[in-house]
């Protein structure tokens, strides 16, 4: 259903965010717990899509699909980077 480059993109973005969350937790210090939960959900969905797993049920396909993963991981990147690039 999705091409290999899309899966590689999901996996690389998930690995990048997971590394930031693991090795530099102060980047998340200013975020609320609800936003951190959404970012981690995006990372999880990125890993699920990146390794090539396609759930059969529509609900789980929407929860762990690439669209939700990319939106949540993109939001996470913007929220993490915002304090470092604000004027």
TrEMBL record:
Keywords: Membrane, Transmembrane, Transmembrane helix. Pfam families: Cyd_oper_YbgE (PF09600). It comes from the Bacteria. The keyword Transmembrane applies. The keyword Transmembrane helix applies. The chain crosses the membrane at residues 6-24, 31-53, 59-81. InterPro entries: Cyd_oper_YbgE. This is Cyd operon protein YbgE. It comes from Sulfuriferula nivalis.
């Amino acid at each position: 259903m999705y091409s290999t480059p899309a899966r590689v993109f999901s996996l690389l973005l998930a690995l990048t965010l997971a590394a930031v969350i693991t090795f530099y937790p102060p980047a998340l210090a200013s975020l609320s717990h609800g936003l951190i939960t959404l970012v981690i959900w995006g990372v999880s969905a990125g890993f699920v899509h990146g390794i090539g797993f396609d759930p059969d049920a529509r609900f789980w396909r929407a929860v762990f699909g690439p669209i939700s993963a990319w939106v949540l991981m993109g939001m996470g990147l913007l929220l993490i980077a915002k304090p470092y690039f604000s004027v």
